Amino acid sequence: MIGKSNGNGGRMTGRGLVLAVMMPALAWAPAALAGPALDACAAEAASQFEPGFAEIGKDSWTMDTVAAIAACKKALSAEPDSAQVKGWLARAYFAAGDSALALPLFEAAAEDGNALALAILGDMLTTGDGVPQDMERGAQLLRQGAEAGFALAQNSLGLSYDFGEGVAQDYDEAARWYRAAAEQGMSKGQSNLGLMYQDGLGVPQDYVAAAAWFEKSAAQGDPSGQANLGILLQDGLGQKADPERAAELYRLAAEQGDMYGQNNLGSLYENGIGVEEDLARAAELYQQAADQDMPLAKHNLALLYEDGRGVKQDYVRALRLYTQAAEGGEMRAAVNLGLLYMDGKGTDVDYEAALKWTQLAADANQPVGLNNMGYIYEHGLGVTANRQTAMDYYQRSADEGYELASENLVRLSKEQTGQGGGGTKTKTK
């Protein structure tokens, strides 16, 4: 189906959103602070999730980083050995985009067991954000924070096990750490645990349980929880389909800049599901997600430009978008890119390029790519025509359930007895 982010997308954004906007975190240190300098630092840089700071703490993306840095520098002068203040000042520097100044403070605070520093530095090392990438050390730091009961570190350690980053991939461990974070009310952990239930990874597949965790995450305004719950509601997985609510959830996520919400809402507008069809609006939403380098959104936007739906038809732009999407791993885009080269739309006819991109999709077992490879070999487009190779590709595509390939296979078999003729290639949505 067009425009739907996959399950991995949700898990991948779990760590990414934490780093991009610095999800607030607490340091395991006494909440009672002495002196106006420390109080001022806490007021500017503490997280509302730290014990004792629920009323004055703030999200880092709403932090006045200039004020926070100034206040926490004064606090550090007053308490130069305070790991908590070092963690706060590092958080302020990092939120301001200054990893160079944040890093030594994070290192010092982490050395003293500060959970905030352990979590953020662990993520930095895992992703190579502002430091040379070192997934193994990143996982070690995350484990220290996770075992101390810190939800942010628990969720990130879950991601490390989920994707085998610095540790051996282990879905059971991933689900265990996601659950630890989720049960503390961390919205990203709740969404990620929901995805494990949705996909049956580390836990039995259970759409009802997945929806329950997504609901908890969405209730906190988390865009990944909103987008993931929207998918279940759109498809009626574990519950009655509710495309109208799915559209509302995608809208909430999209308005927070979430590319999955933007892309999925664009799909609903393109197809008139849960909302009135609006191709121009679909194109706008796909563009927003494409601007965040989302391959699927680039593919979906390319389809609109190729067909001139909601936008002025532009084969050159479609070709560029398909290329970017295919290079990002979207194999449906590779199929359609091959067809543009095959048909000379937006470019000169180039059978070598057509073969390259179609082969890429076929090698990934993409059904339409397999079918189109059959067409290429049947007609000798950039290759020596080979009926048996064509039939092999058609068979592989048919085995994946692609009906057109089954028709091509039957037709080619009939041609051996003097019947049939033609062959069909097609693009994919």
Automatic annotation (TrEMBL):
The highest taxon in the source lineage is Bacteria
Which residues fall in a coiled-coil region? none
Q: Which UniProt keywords apply?
A: Signal
InterPro entries xref list: Sel1-like (IPR006597), Sel1_AlgK (IPR050767), TPR-like_helical_dom_sf (IPR011990)
One Pfam family, please name it. TPR_19
The signal peptide here is: 1-34
Q: What is this protein called?
A: Sel1 domain-containing protein
Query: Lineage of the native species?
Result: Bacteria, Pseudomonadati, Pseudomonadota, Alphaproteobacteria, Hyphomicrobiales
